């Protein structure tokens, strides 16, 4: 009897490991999809200074799928973080005190929904720091001034890549 219990437990553990590994493969594929979508949106934003709605919807869909199949996240944490970040940034967008576009708000909200706390703040801090350094470099080279508009999504893309690489 002890033999059957241990072998049954072993079979269960093996099946669990296979299902878990399959979930991780899907999880990795969704990371790649989000990476590609962010790359496309960042190139579009750098060129046009706006983001197409279809791209934002696709990113949100990828982020929603990632939240559901991610074995490491708490859906409640991600919902609260995504909602709070989106609400704060939408208020900032509506008040107009800081120049941020609605597309930027939607992309950041989608990423907040996918990654939750604290990862979205790592992505934001790295992206904003890189944006600031780029802006200072442009001002030093006399290619920009304080009123020059810059695309934010390319820097969020770099912040996302650095976050995935655990920097």
Name its key features.
167 residues, mainly alpha, 80% helix, disordered N terminus
Approximate shape = globular
Would you tell me the overall average pLDDT? 81
| Approximate helicity band | over 70%
Count every beta strand, where a strand is a DSSP E run of 2 or more residues: 0
- Biggest beta sheet summary: none
Query: Unreliable segments (pLDDT under 50, ≥5 consecutive)?
Result: 1-7
Structural class: mainly alpha
Proportion of beta-strand residues: under 5%
Give the H and E element order.
HHHHHH
Rounded radius of gyration (Å): 20 Å
First-residue to last-residue Cα separation: 51 Å
Total number of helices: 6
Task: Please write out the topology.
Layout: H1 2-48, H2 53-69, H3 75-95, H4 102-115, H5 119-140, H6 153-164
What would you say this structure looks like, in words?
Helices cover 80% and strands 0% of the residues. It is mainly α and 167 residues long. It is globular, with a radius of gyration of 20 Å.
What is this entry, summarized?
The chain has 167 residues and is mostly helical. The protein is built from 6 helices and no strands.
């Amino acid at each position: 009897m002890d033999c059957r219990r241990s072998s049954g437990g072993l079979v269960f553990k093996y099946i669990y490991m296979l299902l878990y590994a399959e979930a991780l493969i899907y999880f990795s594929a969704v990371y790649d999809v989000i990476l590609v979508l962010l790359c496309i949106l960042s190139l579009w934003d750098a060129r046009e200074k706006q983001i197409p709605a279809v791209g934002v919807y696709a990113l949100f869909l990828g982020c929603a799928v990632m939240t559901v199949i991610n074995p490491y996240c708490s859906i409640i944490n991600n919902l609260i973080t995504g909602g709070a970040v989106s609400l704060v940034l939408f208020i900032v967008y509506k008040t107009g005190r800081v120049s941020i576009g609605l597309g930027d708000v939607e992309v950041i909200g989608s990423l907040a929904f996918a990654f939750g706390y604290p990862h979205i703040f790592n992505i934001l801090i790295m992206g904003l720091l890189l944006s600031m350094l780029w802006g200072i470099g442009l001002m030093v080279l006399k290619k920009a001034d304080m009123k020059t508009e810059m695309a934010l999504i390319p820097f969020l893309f770099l912040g996302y890549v650095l976050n995935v690489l655990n920097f």
